[in-house]
């Protein structure tokens, strides 16, 4: 197997530098949740700084992600283009690239992936009901106005309920890109064992796979079509203080759809607390995880260790009938 030194390991390293060590045309699926480049959340973001409540009490130092700056998107695009070019190189022909983003900068991310040579095949929507409202009122500005209190009161009354244009965000977009195939999809699948989707995977009430999903029960109609299993209380790990842990069921769903080969390798270049790696291992696939934060690398390794020791913590993996077979028959391979 290629990348023997890195397969089924979590590596603490700068992603862009380390990707250069991975062999070309060697990865089946890339599934990742990169830095979003919103305020304080770029590629050098520090978990302690972002979580520091002392920085969130005054207007001049807003909580992470609430400050608007056009330069954020430009910097994100330039950085993610380099990342995407390396991911393009390491993926097998026909390999898939799933990348989470924020609604506000999704266009920058998708453009970087597209410009790196990928085909943008679709966009998934992770729908959820709980999130922090980001809109801000203008009372602090009104209070500073050089007018009497009666006039201030009239302005407050007139603008009651009117806030900055940042309503509660209740979905997360995921770009679904594919490295171009060699010849037809069938030829590519026979040669590289990647390039098609497994449509025997089910979502909701045994429904055909969709590009919308939720782990929150919303109503009978939505649940029937789009519901994935809710994360268990112990799935994350009590020691896991990562701010944006992805649900295991979400990663399993995307890997189930796209990873065919028995020895498929799933790469997460921003592995965080390791959910992609846990999902891949749980489904019997190989993984490579990269993260620059040593603390998160240790959390990832602990979660993977617990998967060996206490697999019931992570629930039961759902594997399609085709994936159980593991590989194409050699006699079907096309030269």
Secondary structure layout:
Elements: E1 9-12, H1 15-19, E2 27-32, H2 47-51, H3 70-90, E3 91-100, H4 106-115, E4 119-127, H5 139-144, H6 149-158, E5 171-178, H7 185-192, E6 212-214, H8 220-226, H9 248-258, E7 265-268, H10 275-282, E8 286-291, H11 294-309, H12 321-325
Helix pairs in contact: 3-4, 9-10, 10-11
Question: Could you please describe the fold and organization of this structure?
Answer:
It is a single chain. By secondary structure, the protein is α/β, with parallel strands linked by helices. The chain has two domains: 9-132 and 170-332, Vaccinia Virus protein VP39 (Rossmann fold, 3-Layer(aba) Sandwich); 133-167, no CATH class. Helix content is 33%, strand content 15%. It is built from twelve helices and eight strands. The chain has helices at residues 15-19, 47-51, 70-90, 106-115, 139-144, 149-158, 185-192, 220-226, 248-258, 275-282, 294-309, 321-325, and strands at residues 9-12, 27-32, 91-100, 119-127, 171-178, 212-214, 265-268, 286-291. It has an eight-stranded mixed β-sheet, with helices on both faces. Helix 9 packs across helix 10 (275-282) and helix 10 packs parallel to helix 11. The two termini are 20 Å apart. Residues 49-60 and 321-335 have low confidence and may be disordered.
């Amino acid at each position: 197997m290629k990348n023997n030194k890195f397969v089924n390991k979590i590596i603490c390293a700068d992603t862009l530098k380390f990707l250069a060590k991975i062999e070309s045309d060697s990865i089946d699926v890339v599934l990742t949740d990169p830095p979003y480049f919103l305020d304080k959340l770029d590629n050098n973001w520090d978990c302690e700084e972002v979580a520091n409540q002392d920085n969130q009490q005054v207007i001049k130092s807003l909580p992470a992600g609430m400050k608007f700056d056009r330069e954020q998107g430009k910097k994100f695009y330039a950085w993610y283009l380099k990342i995407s070019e390396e991911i393009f190189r390491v993926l097998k022909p026909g390999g898939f690239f799933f990348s989470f983003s924020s609604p506000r900068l999704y266009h920058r991310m998708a453009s970087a992936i597209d410009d790196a040579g990928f085909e943008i095949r679709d966009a998934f929507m992770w729908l959820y009901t709980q999130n922090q409202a980001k809109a801000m009122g203008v009372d602090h500005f009104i209070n500073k106005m050089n007018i009497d209190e009666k006039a201030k009161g009239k302005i407050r009354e007139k603008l009651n309920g009117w806030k900055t244009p940042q309503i509660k965000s209740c979905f997360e977009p995921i770009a679904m890109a594919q490295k171009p195939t060699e010849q037809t999809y069938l030829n590519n699948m026979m040669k590289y064992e990647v390039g098609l989707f497994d449509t025997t995977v089910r979502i909701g009430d045994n429904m055909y796979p969709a590009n919308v999903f939720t782990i929150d029960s919303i109503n009978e109609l939505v649940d029937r079509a789009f519901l994935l299993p809710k994360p268990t209380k112990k799935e994350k790990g009590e020691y896991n203080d990562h701010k944006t842990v992805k649900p295991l069921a979400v990663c399993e769903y995307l890997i189930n759809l796209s990873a065919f080969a028995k020895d498929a390798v799933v790469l997460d270049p921003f592995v965080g607390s390791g959910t992609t790696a846990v999902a891949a291992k749980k489904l019997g696939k190989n993984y490579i995880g990269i993260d620059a934060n040593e603390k998160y690398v240790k959390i990832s390794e602990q979660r993977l260790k617990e998967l060996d020791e206490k697999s019931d913590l992570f629930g039961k993996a759902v594997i399609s009938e085709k994936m159980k077979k593991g590989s194409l028959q050699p006699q079907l391979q096309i030269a």
